[in-house]
UniProtKB/TrEMBL annotation:
Pfam families: Abi_C
Lineage start: Bacteria, Pseudomonadati, Bacteroidota, Cytophagia, Cytophagales
Protein's name according to its UniProt entry: Abortive infection Abi-like protein
Abortive infection protein-like C-terminal domain boundaries: 194-246
InterPro entries: Abi-like_C (IPR026001)
Organism: Algoriphagus yeomjeoni
Length: 276
C-alpha cells in the first residue's frame, strides 16, 4: 500500500484535474489502457470501486491499495503524458511549474522505494558467467516491475545456488534430485553445525523445503518455463520476496560458516581439508 500524505494527494489531484470525477482528458477505456501499459494493473477491476466508479475515485482507490513503487511509476508516467499533451494543448495542460515539480518529487520518492527490498540478495556465489547473467536477468525483470516473468529464472537460480552450496561443502547430491530434496540435504548439514540458535528458526528453514517443493510446481505450471498461464503480479512478487529473503538469510549463514572456518585455521584447530 502506497504511503501518500494528505498534501501529496492534494497536489496530485490538482495536477491530474480530478475534480468532477475526471482524470485529465482520459475516457474510461483510454485510462484503463494507459494504466495497464505502465504498471500492468486493470483499473476496471471491482476492487477499485470501493469508494465509487468514476475515473477519479478508481484512481484514488488504486493509490490506497497498491505498493509505493507501482504508484511512483504511474505518477512518473502521468507526468510524461502531461508534458507531451501540453505541447499540443497548452490551454488544458496548464499546471504551474511548482505544482509539476511537487508531483515529480512525489513520484520519485515512491519510485525509489523499489519493487522489492530484497532484490540485492539475488547475487551469485561464485564467478560463473552464466550464474552472473542469470542474476542480472532476474534483477532486470524485478526492476521493470515484471516479477511474473522472473519466476522460471528464479527457479533456475535457486537450483544453481543450492547445488553450488552443496558442492562447496562436499554434500553429495544427484542432478536428478529436485530442488527441495537438495535443499533438505543442505539444511541437514547446517543443522548439524549448530550455528542456528533457535528451534523456531530451524523449523522455519525446514518448512522452506515445502516452499521450494511448491516452487517446483509454480515453475512448471505457472511460469514461462512452459506454455502456461503465468501467475498474477501480486503473488509473483510475494514469491520473489519470500525466496529472495531466504537467499539473504542463507548468505548470512554462509558468512558465519566462513568466519568459523577462518577462526579455526588461525587457531590451528582445522586443517584445510577439515573445513565445513
Amino acid at each position: 500500500m502506497a504511503k501518500l500524505s494528505y498534501e501529496d494527494k492534494v497536489y496530485l489531484e490538482k495536477y491530474l484535474q480530478m475534480e468532477g470525477g475526471w482524470v485529465l482528458d482520459f475516457n474510461n477505456e483510454s485510462l484503463k489502457r494507459f494504466i495497464y501499459e505502465n504498471i500492468k494493473l486493470d483499473i476496471s477491476d471491482k476492487k477499485y470501486e470501493i469508494i465509487g466508479t468514476s475515473k477519479a475515485k478508481r484512481l484514488r482507490a488504486l493509490w490506497d491499495l497498491e505498493p509505493d513503487y507501482q504508484l511512483g511509476k504511474l505518477i512518473k508516467s502521468f507526468i510524461l503524458y502531461y508534458k507531451a499533451k501540453r505541447l499540443v494543448n497548452p490551454s488544458l495542460f496548464n499546471a504551474s511549474e511548482d505544482l509539476e515539480k511537487s508531483c515529480e518529487k512525489i513520484g520519485e520518492k515512491l519510485f525509489q522505494k523499489g519493487v522489492s527490498p530484497h532484490i540485492d540478495s539475488i547475487s551469485p556465489i561464485d564467478d560463473d558467467h552464466d550464474f552472473s547473467r542469470l542474476a542480472i536477468t532476474i534483477k532486470d525483470y524485478i526492476e521493470k516491475n515484471e516479477p511474473e516473468l522472473a519466476l522460471d529464472r528464479l527457479h533456475t537460480f535457486y537450483v544453481k545456488f543450492i547445488r553450488g552450496l552443496c558442492a562447496r561443502h562436499k554434500i553429495q547430491f544427484s542432478t536428478s534430485e529436485s530442488l527441495n530434496a537438495i535443499f533438505g540435504k543442505y539444511l541437514k548439514f547446517v543443522t548439524n553445525l549448530r550455528i542456528v540458535e533457535s528451534d523456531m528458526t530451524i523449523s522455519i528453514l525446514k518448512y522452506s523445503i515445502n516452499i521450494l517443493e511448491k516452487f517446483n510446481d509454480v515453475r512448471n505450471n505457472r511460469s514461462l518455463a512452459h506454455d502456461n498461464k503465468i501467475l498474477n503480479y501480486r503473488e509473483s512478487l510475494y514469491i520473489f520476496d519470500a525466496l529472495a529473503r531466504l537467499k539473504g538469510f542463507i548468505d548470512g549463514l554462509e558468512d558465519e560458516i566462513s568466519l568459523e572456518n577462518k577462526k579455526g585455521q588461525e587457531n590451528g584447530l582445522l586443517d584445510k581439508g577439515d573445513l565445513f
